[in-house]
Amino acid sequence: MDDDLIYDVGVHTGEDTDYYLRKGFRVVGVEANPGLVVALKERFAGDIDDRRLTLVDKAIGASRGVVDFYVNRYVSEWGTTDHDWMSRNAKVGAPSDVVRVPTVSLGELLDSFGVPRYMKIDIEGADRLCLRELARRADAPRYVSVESHAWDYEETLEDLEILGAAGYRKFKVIAQHTIDRQVCPRPAKEGRYVRHDFPPGASGLFGEELPGTWMTLEMAKRRYRTLYARVRMVGRHNGVLRFVTNRYLVAALARLFPGGTGWFDTHATF
Q: Does the domain made of 2-269 have the CATH classification 3.40.50.12280?
């Protein structure tokens, strides 16, 4: 394991990669969206030249090949290789255009660049390919985070089970819609201290700097069961927010059902 290495699987615009680099880590970043890759190469040109950032412009797949990638027209975070996810997004008014992109397996990346201290996984429907690869390996990151789907408890439950099979025993459920309230601890517990304001869409703190108390697998399952009950009532995909456009009513529902209008990351460690 390389304690100074982080994998950012789903770089997007670089909001997390920038934070990891500022904290002194080397980063392997994976991004499949060709348009975003162009911007990332320009933004991080110095870090790429200094070999502090390795940018892999491919989609995660089961093996090397080529796959359809759906570039969302309105929400850049919703780019995906999963046809079902693309269809879900289209149903809420966010259609996609398709491009062909090369693929690489997570196992190949780990063999090429090493096992990181922390791996962030956020690739819209293909996250489980990464989790299953970790469950197959004898070596895995000390810390890992994965976005938990905001509409299907059973999918999140399966992710938790795979993480358990990979050897992870402690979990935290982090509300992503409150990331902008996180404050970097000083002194730092991961890398070096930086004063950082987390932008919308960022994954936030990680590892030893995460807020809250670590839970067992069963505790994490119970936590998500409560959260998804709220999501079913008020969520944008299958709750009353499908029919709500008034932002004041949205805010009122968010106060009544905390967590029901947001999304979450599962963090795990040994």
A: no
